Amino acid sequence: xxxxxxxxxxxxxxxxxxxxxxxxxxxxxxxxxxxxxxxxxxxxxxxxxxxxxxxxxxxxxxxxxxxxxxxxxxxxxxxxxxxxxxxxxxxx
Length: 92
Hints:
four-stranded antiparallel sheet
């Protein structure tokens, strides 16, 4: 749906399906790649209360594809850092 809106190219949409997000990608590519279920936001501002960056934690509990989740940091609308979130599995 993001391709007809002009927010992603066909190549970027294909990468989103593969969860292939890299530093420098558009914010909407990261959003599309991780199942549209952000679970936590963190914002960094300067002393003048201007937004410097934000981090979005994407969890994959609702995604059909198993993944540990990602913490994506976005600066000026571009991905600047990607970290895996370690998920501890519950044991019975």
